[in-house]
Amino acid sequence: MSCNPSQLTLLLFFFSFLPFPPGPRIVGDGTAGKPSQEPAPRLVCQFCNYSTVYTTTMVRHVRTHTGERPYRCVSCEKGFTTKQQLEKHCSQPSKPCFKPFACSYCPERFPSDALLSRHRCMRNTFSSY
Predict the structure, then answer these.
(1) Contact assessment for residue 50 and residue 44, using Cβ atoms and an 8 Å cutoff
(2) Which UniProt keywords apply (predicted)?
(3) Which pLDDT score is estimated for 89?
(4) What are 71-80's pLDDT values in tens digits?
(5) What are phi and psi of 71, to 5 degrees?
(6) Strands 109-110 and 101-102
(7) Measured on CA atoms in the order 20, 23, 25, 30, is the torsion positive or negative?
């Protein structure tokens, strides 16, 4: 069977609306439209053979060798190597820094000014009798 050019054009036009059959399709080598990326240079620790591509990870790692603890708790002065460690320390109810509001009349401490005020009010009420 032979098709003339107009029939072939009509046939190609018709088939252009059909979905591709299932199964793998190979179109080029897969690199079209992708920017070429070279691997990031690795950072190597000056104290040991540890390496990483992330600067923040290397800074945190070097602190294990130097003992630097730049994040300090304002209540107990304990130092931490990361901000996350400090936040975890200060969020634990059993820690004294979780209760930064101290009563001036007794050793009690409170996590908020409102609770300290309530304590003072109750203390003054009981001590006036």
Answers:
(1) yes
(2) Metal-binding, Nucleus, Repeat, Signal, Zinc, Zinc-finger
(3) 85
(4) 988 777 889 9
(5) -100, 115
(6) antiparallel
(7) positive
